[in-house]
């Protein structure tokens, strides 16, 4: 059975734009998928990346244009300069980790956090927003406070795993054959690879 490690950040607009497609592709190919939320700014620092605010204006302007185009192509609402970004992504990541530890599919929860930040002008670092996203995705809101030490440890380990596996951005997909796919716009390539077409 194929396996996909999905490294992502709840603060990433391109994670939001990925929607539930990673889960759909995994299901299509009978693959397992492990959601591995991480600190994207720390990942940048560890792998030679630059936070958006520190990039050259040319890169910043391109990023905004690219986000707008991708959102339109995907039919998703998106505010390229949301009110609550950047913010602390750890609480939402901890909730995803706790939810995944129940054995449930967290695709809708990942999407809910992305939509809250990038389409709904909500601060995903806040407890009420975290609980609301959990509840709307079919989880017990109390997961927001469950096994936080374990979630914090997993969050830190995900960063180390990402660096060791060769990831450097988000979303980043790595198969069990060590094929790496970076970016929302490479999800179709992941699908083609798992289909044996590339």
Give the gist of this structure.
The chain has 198 residues and is an alpha+beta fold. It has 9 helices and 4 strands.
CATH superfamily, called what?
Answer: Glutaredoxin
**How far apart, in Å, are the first and last alpha carbons?**
18 Å
Helix and strand content put the structural class at: alpha+beta
Range of helix content: 40-55%
CATH topological fold name: Glutaredoxin
Q: Which runs of at least 5 residues are low in confidence (pLDDT < 50)?
A: none
Total domain units: 1
Structure description:
- The chain is an alpha+beta fold.
- The chain has one domain (3-194): Glutaredoxin (3-Layer(aba) Sandwich).
- It has nine helices and four strands, in the order E-H-H-E-H-H-H-H-H-H-E-E-H.
- It has helices at 13-18, 21-28, 40-47, 57-74, 90-100, 107-118, 127-136, 148-165, 187-194; strands spanning 3-8, 32-37, 172-175, 180-182.
- Strands 2-1-3-4 form a four-stranded mixed beta sheet, sandwiched between helices.
- Strand 3 (172-175) and strand 4 form a beta hairpin.
- It is globular.
Key terms for this structure?
198 residues; Glutaredoxin; four-stranded mixed β-sheet; 9 helices; 4 strands; globular
């Amino acid at each position: 059975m194929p396996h996909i490690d999905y490294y992502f950040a709840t603060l990433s607009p391109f994670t939001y734009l990925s929607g539930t497609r990673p889960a759909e592709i995994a299901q299509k190919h009978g693959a397992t998928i492990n959601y591995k939320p991480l600190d994207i700014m720390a990942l940048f620092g560890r792998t030679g990346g630059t936070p958006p605010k520190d990039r050259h204006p040319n890169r910043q302007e391109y990023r905004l244009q690219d986000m707008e185009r991708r959102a339109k192509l995907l039919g998703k609402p998106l505010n390229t300069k949301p009110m609550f970004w950047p913010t602390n992504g750890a609480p939402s990541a901890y909730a995803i980790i706790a939810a995944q530890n129940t054995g449930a599919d967290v695709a809708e929860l990942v999407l809910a956090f992305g939509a809250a930040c990038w389409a709904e002008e909500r601060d995903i670092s806040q407890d009420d927003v975290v609980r609301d996203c959990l509840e709307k995705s079919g989880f017990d809101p109390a997961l927001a406070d469950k096994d936080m030490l374990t979630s914090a440890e997993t969050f830190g380990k995900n960063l180390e795993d990402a660096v060791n596996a060769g990831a450097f951005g988000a979303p980043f997909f790595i198969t069990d054959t060590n094929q790496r796919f970076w970016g929302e716009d490479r999800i179709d390539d992941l699908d083609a690879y798992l289909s044996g077409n590339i």
